[in-house]
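Schema walk-through. Below, the input block comes first and the output block second. Nothing else is stored per chain. Lengths vary across the set, and this one has 123 residues.
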Amino acid sequence: QVQLAESGGGLVQAGGSLRLSCAASGRAFSNYNMGWFRQAPGKEREFVAAIRWNGSRTNYADSVKGRFTISRDNAKNTVFLQMNSLKPEDTAVYFCAPANSLLSLPESTFNSWGQGTQVTVAS
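--- output ---
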């Protein structure tokens, strides 16, 4: 079991950048594939990016590929999402969560979604 806390969101202009952080509790953080997911107003939560437990593989939604980079520092129990060239359609609440083996969905037993961090991109 890992508890997660997202931070780093804010208000930026289109074309700007943000780096989100997800701090995890527990000593077993490195056992988990991790992902970022987002939910825009009135929309379903969607996959953004994920990274294998050891950082050896990543996966991205087509909508963010080439603009976002997921990374992790297991020694600091933290996963990051570097977001560049932000677009208004990136506006959403961003959440982190353990990811499945295909790096495409939240881990199937995960139900502890937190408050996330708000990203607002103005045009």
